Every structure is written in structure tokens, then in C-alpha cells.
Amino acid sequence: MKKAKRILALAGVILLLAMYGSTMVFAFMKDPRAGDFLMASIYCTIAVPVLLYAMTLVTRRLKDKNKELQDEAKAAGNQPEKTADAEKEEVLNDSRK
What we know:
This protein is mainly alpha-helical. It has one domain (about 1-95). It is built from three helices and no strands. The radius of gyration is 22 Å and the shape is elongated.
């Protein structure tokens, strides 16, 4: 999981650098459409990191909520339901046999 996070983080850094670079290029272009490209690039430079941050917050919150529900179920003596990841893992293990 850590390796996947590092790869995604590196991809995010590369994407941000590409957006900053394209913003710089569009700012100095003399094409009639350069202004539209520049505005789109500036919008993406702001919107993409904000959306990624929001997705990270939602994921963290849902993960915490899922853990709380599982802890409550264990405390009550009930077996917690299988998560989607556990079901996928079980299917993969069955298919490998």
C-alpha cells in the first residue's frame, strides 16, 4: 500500500509541475486562443489540488467511520460485515486455487 501511495504522490507532483509549466507557456504564447488556454490552465492549477485534497479528506473520514463501526460491532459481540476489500481478497484467493 505504501508503494502505491508513493507512486500516486509522484504522479501528482508530475501533474502539478506539468500544469504550472503549461500555465507559463500559455502566458507567453502569441496565439489568439492562448488567453483561453491560460485561463483553463490556471483553473486546473487551482481546481485539481483542491479536488484531490477533498477526496483525501473524505477517504480518511470514511476509513475512520468504518473502523469505528467495526470496533462497535466487536464490542457488542457481533461479527462485523466483510468490507469490499476483504470480499475482493477472498475472490482473488479462490480464483488462484
